[in-house]
Amino acid sequence: MPGVYIKTYGCQMNERDSEQVSKMLAERGYSMVADESDADVILLNTCSVRDMAEQKAIGKMGMLRKLRKKRPHLVLGYLGCMAQARGESLLETSPHIDLVVGTQKFHRVADYVDELLQSRLNQLIDDERRPIVDTDGEAGSQSTIRDQELAPQQVTAFVSIMQGCNMHCAFCIVPQTRGAERGRTIAEIVAEVRSLADRGVKEVTLLGQIVNLYGRHEFPKADGKSPFVQLLEAVCAVDGIERVRFTSPHPIGYRDDLIDAFARLPKLVEHVHLPLQSGSDRILKTMRRGYTAEKFQALAARIRDARPGMAITTDIIVGFPGETDGDFEKTKDLCESVSFDNAFVFRYSPRQNTPAATMDGQLPESVKEARNQELLAVVNRHSAAKLNALVGTNVEILCEGASRHNPERFSGRTRTNKIVVFEGDPRHIGGIFDVKITRASNSTLYGDPAVLS
Q1: What pTM was computed for the model?
Q2: Model confidence at 123, in pLDDT bands (50, 70, 90)?
Q3: Are 110 and 21 in contact (CB under 8 A)?
Q4: First vs last C-alpha separation in the chain
Q5: Residue 437 — φ and ψ, nearest 5°?
Q6: Whole-angstrom Cα distance, residue 132 to residue 90?
Q7: Measured between alpha carbons, how far is 449 from 452 in angstroms, rounded to an integer?
Q8: Residue 362 DSSP one-character state
Q9: Tens digit of pLDDT for each residue in 356-375?
Q10: Staple partner for 334: which of 51, 75, 279, 349, CB 3.0–4.6 Å?
Q11: Number of Cβ within a 10 Å radius of residue 50
């Protein structure tokens, strides 16, 4: 039985795509292995959002070549966003690879792996090796990420509801790598969620590039509700599903009907991701974000008013072309006033064929790094304060299983997306219950097992 090793870079959508590929390969008789040295097939599912992610994947692939000395038949391939963006040029960067598959062809990976591995096992010499490159678009590809192979006692799952993005922010390569917006039907998504619930899943996270703009050009409104809100209602109505999350959204997608949904759908958790990117109106305009800092702050306040205890996280880019000290100070000020529960802070990274890559005012890496660290200090201070405020309180968690860092302990997640580690028992996996918080670290809460039943 050939072994397959898949390494995933980037976002939750990439993780979900890798899960789909794993399931399709398993259905062909392949086994997933935890060590690349045991694999007959190694696939890197790549990210293109930042240059560092691409360089990590390319560097990793270079190191994998040495495994061919012991396993001459080894098949090596790139999948995903970098594969889509670079295509055949990856055969020059990594001349030893066999496979390059873009974001709309994950469902073809098993076919291609069969073909390549059979050729290798037939002992074709390297000169006869014919790499396969498929980065073509395909209608209906948004509906090919739909089947899930759950791990034992898995109680959370990602559900892909759409592909692509029509926003064309100046810094972002996603419209090039994922294509235009296109969504699955509500019925198809709900059927997947119902299947997950039947197999013990308690929490689902709906995934999309701009997830809260789901279906806006494809499906009609109903009773004044957008397709996304209609979908949220349908998913929340599935028996067995106790919590519903979604990522990654855009501020312009938080319209009245969605804000109202937080007030009336109890299964919709008290956590929203609200990407800021910059607190400077001038930079936001150059980024093509479609909102001002004032509108962003007002939106955050409206969301918090709709649901008490709401946690808000964000994404921020520092060092965007032309960003002055004054622009950066405005970002810091907005972070102070909004007080995010957490934030992903990124140094601007030029992406090929994006407007920002050729803008004047490109900043040196030293400036980007200094601003990155300075803003992280602000974010971490607010995050730590929110975690410490929970010490001594009882919080509801969904126990997801053993702690990642200490398998003798268990880990759960609050409705506000905070991790709680506690001394529990395997029978608690999948349970939703209160835990008393006894202490907090910089990123994790620790609970008292005395309240467990």
Answers
A1: 0.92
A2: low
A3: yes
A4: 44
A5: -85, 125
A6: 11
A7: 5
A8: P
A9: 999 999 999 999 999 999 99
A10: 279
A11: 18
